[in-house]
């Protein structure tokens, strides 16, 4: 099973996270299938690759709780509902 989850990058006390599609059995810093965005909690910046995220969600990938919240704040699901209607 594939999940969309955060992968920690950056240095000490200055964490930056990549949003990645990764196999459930892999560890946090393990090999990812594809990078689909990034999130900087300090600057509150988000960069998303929408076509890649849609691809993985359509294939059955499940976002973790934190990634789901990031996508919701970026109004990702509102755009998705509009395209489906």
Core attributes:
5-stranded mixed beta sheet, chloroplast, alpha+beta, Small ribosomal subunit protein bS16c, ribosomal protein, 85 residues, single chain, Ribosomal_bS16, globular
Walkthrough of the structure:
By secondary structure, the chain is of the alpha+beta class. It has one domain (2-83): S16 Ribosomal Protein, Chain: A, CATH 3.30.1320.10. 32% of the residues lie in helices and 39% in strands. The chain has 3 helices and 5 strands; from the N terminus they run ββββαβαα. Strand 1 and strand 2 form a beta hairpin. The longest helix is centred in the middle third of the chain and has 9 residues, at 50-58. The model has no long low-confidence stretch (mean pLDDT 88). One of its GO terms (cellular component) is small ribosomal subunit. It holds the Pfam family Ribosomal_S16. It comes from Joinvillea ascendens.
Proportion of residues in extended strands: 35-45%
Number of domains: 1
Strand segment tally: 5
Please estimate the helix content.
25-40%
Low-confidence residue ranges: none
What do we call the CATH topology? S16 Ribosomal Protein, Chain: A
Shape: globular
If helices are DSSP runs of H or I spanning 4 or more residues, what is the number of helices?
3
End-to-end CA span: 28 Å
Written as H for each helix and E for each strand, in order along the chain, the element string is: EEEEHEHH
Characterize the largest beta sheet: strand count, sense, and whether it forms a barrel: 5 strands, mixed
Fourth-tier CATH superfamily name: Ribosomal protein S16
Please tell me the overall pLDDT: 88
Rg value: 13 Å
Helix/strand-derived category reads alpha+beta
- Second rung of CATH, namely the architecture: 2-Layer Sandwich
GO biological process, one term: mitochondrial translation
Pfam families: Ribosomal_S16
Keywords: Chloroplast, Plastid, Ribonucleoprotein, Ribosomal protein
Family: Belongs to the bacterial ribosomal protein bS16 family.
